[in-house]
């Protein structure tokens, strides 16, 4: 795991919590902010996944040499 994967997951979970709280208190702005944070986290996590895949591919290529 890399930093982007970890931070992305944390943002994703925090966004879910914020959106849930927004629903509980009937606050559309908090729901929207939570969903935005959740989306940001998902994107960052996917960027981390890509980095990890590229790193694994580079490591495999080095082993072949």
TrEMBL record:
Pfam families in UniProt: CsbD
Positions of the CsbD-like domain: 4-56
Family per record: Belongs to the UPF0337 (CsbD) family.
Protein name: CsbD family protein
Source species of the chain: Comamonas koreensis
């Amino acid at each position: 795991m890399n930093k982007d994967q970890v931070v992305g997951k944390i943002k994703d979970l925090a966004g879910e919590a914020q959106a849930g709280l927004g629903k509980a208190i009937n606050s559309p702005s908090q729901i929207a902010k939570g969903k935005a944070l959740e989306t940001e986290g998902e994107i960052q996590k996917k960027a981390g996944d890509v980095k990890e895949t590229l790193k694994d591919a580079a490591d495999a290529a080095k082993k072949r040499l």
